[in-house]
Design goal:
Helix 4 crosses helix 6. About 40% of the residues are buried. By secondary structure, the protein is an alpha/beta fold. The chain is built from six helices and five strands, in the order ααβαβββαβαα. The protein has a single domain, classed as Peptidoglycan recognition protein-like (Lysozyme-like), CATH 3.40.80.10. The structure holds zinc ion.
């Protein structure tokens, strides 16, 4: 394979949404901010069709039922999107961790709806992430939280996927995005009894061959884990205090 073509294929493993359906720019020289070359979450986000969850192989996969399988409401505002999915969703049998993504291309702000349409256009069931965090910190719903996602190949059956919009190979996440991300992670850690750590709050690159979520977000993950651990402990203390007060009132 010629070197220029090899460079292209290597670079094409860099991103998240595979937004323009590319890989048709063969021979393009690898440049970090090259919009045409950064296009491959397609490879990573393909649903694990037919695979059984690694940790729960004996459990029977069940179709997601919006009435019966509704997750606890978030304690932070989440904009409902009520997307229609092209295929029935499955209930995620286990939740052991959370995977952080970026959009890659396009850079800047991207809505959950735009991602949903892009993923539908690829013939997928619809948006593969459970949440999308916009530049102003707004959290939008993607897939229902209890449903199996399609965001990290081989890990969709026991993780939740969060997409922080932007291209963090070149941009930096906004303060509003980071604040919303941490609050959302605290909520998820609490409802799924997850302790924030390197094996439970991961970047997409930790599990698949991709640069996602970009260096400028990935290098913040250690601090984000520490913050989430502290905030989770504080919330638990608050709840314990309230419980004590309630007992005294009896
Ligand atoms: Zn990703």
């Amino acid at each position: 394979m010629p070197m220029s073509q090899m460079k292209f294929y290597i670079h094409a493993l860099v991103c998240c949404i595979c937004w323009l359906g590319v890989l048709t720019v063969a021979g393009a020289e690898a440049k970090p901010a090259d919009a045409a070359a950064v296009q491959t979450e397609a490879v990573q986000a393909i649903p694990d069709k037919g695979k059984l969850p690694s940790a729960s192989g004996k459990e029977e996969m069940r179709r997601y039922d919006p009435a019966a399988d509704r997750s606890p409401a978030e304690d932070i505002p989440v904009v409902e999107t009520n997307f229609s999915f092209a295929e029935p969703l499955l209930v995620r049998p286990d939740t052991k961790g959370i995977v952080i993504h970026h959009v890659g291309m396009p850079s800047g702000d991207t809505s959950a709806e735009a991602i949903h349409k892009a993923h539908l256009a690829k013939g997928w069931a619809g948006i593969g992430y459970h949440y999308v965090i916009r530049k102003d910190g707004t959290i939008e719903r993607g897939r229902p939280l209890a449903a199996v996602g399609a965001h990290a190949q081989g890990h969709n059956f026991d993780t939740v996927g969060i997409n922080v919009t932007g291209n963090f190979d070149t941009e930096r996440p906004t303060a509003e995005q980071l604040a919303s991300l941490e609050r959302l992670l605290v909520f998820l850690c609490r409802i799924y009894d997850i302790e924030a750590g390197v094996t439970t709050i991961e970047g997409h690159r930790d599990m698949n061959a991709t640069d996602c979520p970009g260096d400028n977000l990935y290098r913040l993950l250690p601090q984000i884990r520490r913050d989430v651990k502290v905030q989770t402990a504080e919330k638990e203390l608050e709840d314990a205090d309230i419980w004590e007060l309630l007992k005294k009132d009896r």
